[in-house]
Amino acid sequence: MSEFRAWRRQLGRLIAAAAVGAAVIGAIGQITARAESPSPYDMKYATFSAPSGVPMRSAMQDGASVVGTIPAGGKGIVMRWCRPEFPFGAWQFGGAKMQRQLLDQRWCEVSYKGKIGNVDGHMLAPE
C-alpha cells in the first residue's frame, strides 16, 4: 500500500509541475503578444497636420531643396529610416502618445509612390 501512496504522491507532484509550466507558458505568451506591435519600419504612414501637403526634401533639414510633395491626406507612406534612431521598446510599449512624441523628434527618409525624400517626422502619423 505504501508503494501506491508514493506513486500517487509522485503523480500529484507531476500534475502540479505541469500546471505551473502551463501558467508560465501562458504568461510568456501574453508578454510576447504585447511585444509584437510592429516596429516603426514595418508600418505605413499618412500625412499628419499638413493641410497643404508635406515637402519631401533632399536632406534631413528644413532648408534642403524640395524633391517632391506628399499631398494632404496622403497614405501608404513607407518609412525607410530615421535619425535619431527609434528606441524600439519605447515605440512598441509606449502607445500612441509615445509614438507621436518619438515621431516629433525625428527626420525620416520615406518613400511615396516611387519617390524618395526626407520629411520631418512631425508631419507623419501611423495609419
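the 2nd protein, sequnce then structure:
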Amino acid sequence: MGLRKYPKLTNLASLDIAQNNFEGELPSKLGRQTNIVYLLATNAGLSGRIPATLGNCKKLRILNLSFNSLFGPLPDSLAGLEFIISLVFD
C-alpha cells in the first residue's frame, strides 16, 4: 500500500510511519507540511529518491529514513534545514 492513498493531511507536527509495509516513494507533497517537526520513517518499506521538497519543511528537527530502499544523492535542499538536529539515512 502506498502513502499516496491516504487522505490529505494538513498542519502535521509529527509523522511516524516506522515499521510499516508501505510501497513506493515518500510523496513529494510532504514538502507542503511546513509545520512538521518530526518525520520518522524507519523500516517503512519506502523506495526511490528522497524528495527535494522536504527542504521546504523548515521546522524539521528530526528526519529518520533509515532501513528503506532509498537511493540517489541527498537533495541539496536539505542543507537549508536550519533546525535539524538528527538526520539518519542508513
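The CA atoms of residues 57 and 65 lie 15 Å apart. DSSP finds no helices and six strands in the chain.
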